[in-house]
Amino acid sequence: MSRLRSKHEGVLIFSDYKKTSFRILYVAVLIFLAVAAIISIFPPLWLFLSSFKTPEEILANNFVLFPETMDFKRISEIWQQFQFGRFYINSFILVAGAIVCSITFNGLLAYGTAVIKPKGWKVIDVMVMATLLIPAMINISPLYMNIIGIFNRINELFDTNVWQIPYFSYLPLWLIYGANAYYYVLFKVYFSSLPQPLFEAAKIDGASQIQMFRYILFPLSLPIIAVVTIFTMNAAWSDFLLPYLMTRVNQSEQPIMVKLYNMYANQMAQVTMQERLMTIMFSIVPPIILFMLFQRQIAQNVATTGLKE
Predict the structure, then answer these.
(1) CA distance 183 to 90
(2) Is the separation of the CB atoms in 118 and 112 below 8 Å?
(3) pTM of the entire structure?
(4) CB–CB of 74/54 below 8 Å?
(5) What is the average pLDDT across 130-151?
(6) Can you say how many angstroms the Cα of residue 205 is from the centroid of all Cα atoms in its chain?
(7) In this model, does residue 269 exceed pLDDT 60?
(8) Residue 95: which of 289, 256, 301, 300 has the closest Cα?
(9) CB < 8 Å & 24+ apart, contacts of 262-270
């Protein structure tokens, strides 16, 4: 009730809640949000608890949420059995490179079109925005063929096998995340909302474009950088098709999602249902932790995207 009394802005303020109709509406919204939260939490909770159940408990006709016993030693046993540590490292390397490229390339392009605005910037902006109209799956085949062609050309020029270079197959994946129209739009909208007098004053003081980017734009852009980092990590961690294609030669570099697929496809008879559920649980833990830590930044970005002060 104390929080409602301090509410003096928004669609409804404290005086509105004195009316019975608004109180009923407030309670109904709370109930709806509570039900939505339960529905959202139930799948990962069921997955976690079911990973400790025996196959008989999972397939039983009578649904029981909690297992009869929870042996937490099974977590470390299955982790070591399938060598998940190495594939976690692969996924983190993939994610780290994707984040660096995503922030650097998309941010610099957005800086050019939103702040510098050289001649022809509108043409570049329209071309980038047009890529949002092309379904991602259509690009997979020509993109993969171009990557293979470039790799083969490098092999011929330098008389080497680039597939044997550690994590060289990740380079195209990193660059793909560095050319993402959605992240570009996020940066551009945010940069456009920044006060233009700051940049004009810096120009009068003789600051170069690099200095304005370093001392003005970058410190003010930490919120949007955090948001793009979150989105990029989630997308790179969950990506499957291109990482699967690029790591077919060197399977020791497979990220976690590709490892899960190959593990189930090649060892279906050896992987029990309990092990399968627990390995899936391993794969979803990092995105869940990430969202829990940065959910406020995500919500604030969704609420303020497209708004200017």
Answers:
(1) 23
(2) yes
(3) 0.78
(4) no
(5) 83
(6) 39
(7) no
(8) 256
(9) 263/82
193 is written with which tokens?
A: 């909302």
Domains in the chain: ranges and CATH = 2-73 (no CATH), 81-304 (1.10.3720.10)
Residue whose pair of structure tokens reads 């098709």 in the numeric block: 241
More confident residue, 55 or 89: 89
Tokens of 304: 């303020």
pLDDT (tens digit per residue) in 173-202: 898 888 888 999 999 988 888 887 887 888
Q: Is the pLDDT of residue 33 over 80?
A: yes
CA distance readout (Å), 185 to 48, 104, 111, 296, 304:
37, 14, 11, 20, 13
CA distances for 171 relative to 174, 201, 281, angstroms: 5, 40, 28
Alpha-carbon distance of 14 to 5, in angstroms, equals 5
Three-class HEC string of the chain: CHHHHCCCCCCCCHHHHHCHHHHHHHHHHHHHHHHHHHHHHHHHHHHHHHCCCCHHHHCCCCCCCCCCCCCCHHHHHHHHHCCHHHHHHHHHHHHHHHHHHHHHHHHHHHHHHHHHCCCCHHHHHHHHHHHHHCCHHHHHHHHHHHHHHHHHHHHHHHCCCHHHCCCHHHHHHHHHHCCCHHHHHHHHHHHHHCCHHHHHHHHHCCCCHHHHHHHHHHHHCHHHHHHHHHHHHHHHHHCCHHHHHHCCCCHHHCCHHHHHHHHHHHCCCCCCHHHHHHHHHHHHHHHHHHHHHHHHHHHHHHHHCCCCC
Q: What is the pLDDT of residues 227-242, one digit of tens each?
A: 888 889 888 988 888 8
Which tokens in the block code for residue 99? 């984040």
